[in-house]
Specification:
- This protein has 4 helices and 4 strands.
- By secondary structure, it is an alpha+beta fold.
- The protein has a 4-stranded antiparallel β-sheet, sandwiched between helices.
- Strand 3 and strand 4 form a beta hairpin.
- Helix 2 runs antiparallel to helix 3.
- The longest helix has 12 residues.
- It is globular and about 30 Å long.
Length: 127
């Protein structure tokens, strides 16, 4: 039987051989994938309106449904995104955020500017 944490079965198919980093969730750069939601607005003003709703306690998914201007209208859910699949500023912000829930979201404030517009990002999971 292989020693604990070294290959063998029970891993999540981590081909990189860093099964230990997955378990600790303190990988130096925050893992390789994030389960992310966002609110995307082309105009800064609209994004700030959405931010005010969040600060007033409205659920992230509701604000995303009302304000987000992209295909992720089902509450802003983008699902699991891997490092390298997102635009630079969005990726940096997503991996820097703490994992949070819809009830007590931790999101980017101020919004993150990318070529797509302004994003309010929250992270629901990391792996």
């Amino acid at each position: 039987m292989p020693p604990k944490g070294k290959g063998g079965k029970g891993g999540k198919g981590a081909a990189s051989g860093s099964a230990d980093a997955d378990k600790k969730e303190k990988a130096p750069k925050g893992g390789t994938a994030v389960k992310v939601r966002h609110i995307l607005c082309e105009k800064h003003g609209k994004c700030m309106e959405a931010m005010e709703k969040l600060k007033a306690g409205v659920r992230f998914s509701e604000v995303a449904s009302q304000y987000s201007e992209d295909k992720a209208r089902q509450g802003g859910d983008l699902g699991w995104m891997t490092r390298g699949s997102m635009v630079g500023p969005f990726q940096d912000a997503a991996f820097a955020l703490a994992v949070s829930s819809m009830d007590k979201p931790v999101y980017t404030d101020p919004p993150v500017k990318t070529k797509f517009g302004y994003h309010i990002i929250m992270v629901e999971g990391k792996k």
